[in-house]
Amino acid sequence: MTTPVALIIDDEQDLLSLLSITLRRMGVESVKAGNVTEALAQLGKRSYDLCLTDLRLPDGSGMDIVKHIQENYSDIPVAVITAFGDPKTAVEALKLGAFDYIAKPIEVEQLQAIIESSIRLSETTPTTDTKRTLLGESELMQQIRALINKVARNQAPVHINGETGTGKELIARLIHDNGPRSTNPFIAVNCGAIPRELMESEFFGHKKGSFTGAFSDKKGLFEAAHGGTLFLDEIADLPSDLQVKLLRTIQERTVRPVGEVTEKPIDVRLISATHKNLQEMIEKGQFREDLYYRVNVIPINAPSLRDRPIDIPVLAAHFTKLISRKSGITSPTLGADAMKLLASHHFPGNVRELENLLERTLALHDGDTITAADLNLIPGSSSSTTPIRTSSPKDIDSEAGTPSAKNNAASPSLDQMALPIDEHLNNIEKALIKDALDKSGGNITKAAALLGTTFRSLRYKIKKLEIDSS
Q1: What is the pLDDT of residues 310-364, one digit of tens each?
Q2: Does residue 395 have a pLDDT over 60?
Q3: Angle at which helices 62-72 and 87-96 cross, to 10°
């Protein structure tokens, strides 16, 4: 196995020695340079697995080296060494293409983490996990896939903006899967789903006895994601005091658990997302501007489904096969009229709405071909439905709608529309469950598979709704 080689650039001999010793202990050789001129000369002599450069050099800036490497040796990860308390420069370096940064005075643990990540990067190959695939042949999706592959190679914070149901978490997971942290944890959390009083403990952990109910030490989300990626979905929902603590954690790369007096170093790649407009929230004083610039180093816009209608047939066929396989049924074909109707639909709920629509349709469908009538979809309307399966954060965002017209009881009449919303939804669920039970001959296990839920959840619903399953 070839020994990795790093180019280290600094005009301070003490720092060069520290870098060289640390690299040697990790099995990495080093070549030294004291300024920009020497560094550019060394880059032309051989290949490197990593470059570490100070930003302040006698004959120029480390930014010049970052640009040169990006233009001529883009496969070399370059990390910059910044002055203490200079986050703006660090962010600028990341935007130029730096792999990562470390602030002076250098902490050996953080330096080792950067070196390990950069060495792993050269060994990383794109994921082949078919469960996580960003489908679509539109120009927008081709651009997103190319951006994911590029972004995955560095450690800069990424912010994904897009409407509900556009696949923001999938984009985050693909960035993680294709990067040097792919074998380490990917921790996803919906910031809006954590009770306010538990937020600090959830994010940063707590020490036993630090508050009532803290019966043992607990790791927070940052520690749980150490070495990997932390995905903060709906970051716009964080209250202002948590925004301050998050900003400090990002800048210092340390966490202080509740009740603890010392800080712990953490090595986490941060990816955030929201469907809200953070710029507008900044203007209203609802989101910190300094935090925005730290999390939005690399912005990615997740396109809505109506902006890429050419991808709808591919997605529809994919979901039909996937849902059928999970339900243990033969996958039907989507007829031409069904495809035409789907392609013309607005889909305000985006990809998630399309998936829910097909899940509902397949639960009630018989035959080899799905027609436009089977979809029970009015052009321009919302097709989302309330799934019976146990709720997840993704399901909570789904909008309620009407089920298939194939079962008359599932189609609300004017009288039903006047019912209280809870009773109306109960009637819809009753109709769906009865239809599934009829199709499965009263077998709850098979009915649960048709509805995409578990035996236990369906049995609970049958009892709650007083459905005769005999």
Answers
A1: 899 899 999 999 999 988 888 999 998 998 899 889 899 999 999 999 999 998 8
A2: no
A3: 20
Which CA distances in Å does 374 have to 129, 310, 370, 378, 379? 32, 22, 6, 11, 14
Walk me through the domains of the chain, giving residue ranges and CATH numbers: 5-123 (3.40.50.2300), 139-303 (3.40.50.300), 313-376+395-399 (1.10.8.60), 403-470 (1.10.10)
- In this structure, what token pair is assigned to residue 58? 């006698």
Rounded to two decimals, what is the model's pTM? 0.70
